[in-house]
TrEMBL record:
UniProt-recorded name of the protein: Membrane protein YeiH
Keyword flag Repressor: no
GO cellular component: plasma membrane
Keyword entries, A-Z: Cell membrane, Membrane, Transmembrane, Transmembrane helix
Membrane topology, from the record: Multi-pass membrane protein
Keyword Magnesium set for record: no
Similarity field: Belongs to the UPF0126 family.
Subcellular location, record wording: Cell membrane
InterPro entries reported for this sequence: Gly_transporter
Membrane-traversing stretches: 6-23, 30-47, 59-78, 90-112, 118-139, 151-166
Main location: membrane
Pfam families in the record: Gly_transporter
Length: 201
């Protein structure tokens, strides 16, 4: 298992948790929570794969489904569904931010694998990162976070651009990928803490 596979598993688990927490917050039934968690975790990857003209990996590989199943069982055992208020919001922020960063990296790497240009690499990373969240928020009748949240999609764009430049310099390796993952995660959390945001009209 290589670094990309590990990052993909991290992103899948993180987004499964974020979908699970949204389902709990919206008081959905068991099937509703499962659907929201599943589509949050695989939605962006499916959009990415359609864009590059390949069968979505979730239809040919079992790792994502196994990861989602184990994550949801763990979330239930640790009683995340019993969280309320600020604790629930904090858990969602941590999970969703990690999923955003991890899926940006894996999506951008697909763009590099297909020899796309800068725009293509950044866009694939962006779509992979925010696609599942858009599906999740639409399902529960919320405005997607990408359209309303402070410094959210911008983090994805920065990471995708950084990965493209690292690849152009021949510096993509275990060390730099970890820096992108955890550095991007810290950036997203810090931006939320200090309420960074782009100018509004």
């Amino acid at each position: 298992m290589n670094t990309t596979d590990i990052i993909h598993i991290i992103g899948t688990a993180a987004f499964a948790v974020s979908g699970y927490l949204v389902g709990v917050r919206k008081r959905l039934d068991l099937l509703g929570v499962l659907i929201v968690a599943l589509l949050t975790a695989i939605g962006g990857g499916m959009m990415r794969d359609v864009l590059v003209g390949r069968v979505p990996l979730v239809f040919t590989q079992h790792s994502a489904i196994i990861t989602i199943a184990l994550t949801l069982v763990a979330a239930w055992l640790f009683k995340l569904q019993n969280q309320r208020g600020k604790t629930l919001a904090a858990s969602f922020l941590l999970a969703d931010s990690l999923g955003l960063v991890a899926f940006t990296i894996t999506g951008a790497q697909v763009g590099l694998m297909y020899d796309l240009n800068l725009f293509g690499v950044v866009m694939l990373g962006f779509v992979t990162a925010v696609g599942g969240g858009i599906v999740r928020d639409t399902l529960v009748n919320d405005i997607p976070m990408i359209l309303r949240k402070d410094f959210y999609g911008t983090v994805s764009v920065i990471i995708g651009l950084a990965l493209y430049l690292l690849d152009a310099a021949g510096w993509v390796n275990l060390f730099t990928l970890n820096i992108l993952l955890w550095g991007g995660y810290a950036l997203r959390l810090w931006a939320h803490r200090v309420a960074w945001r782009l100018p509004r009209f």
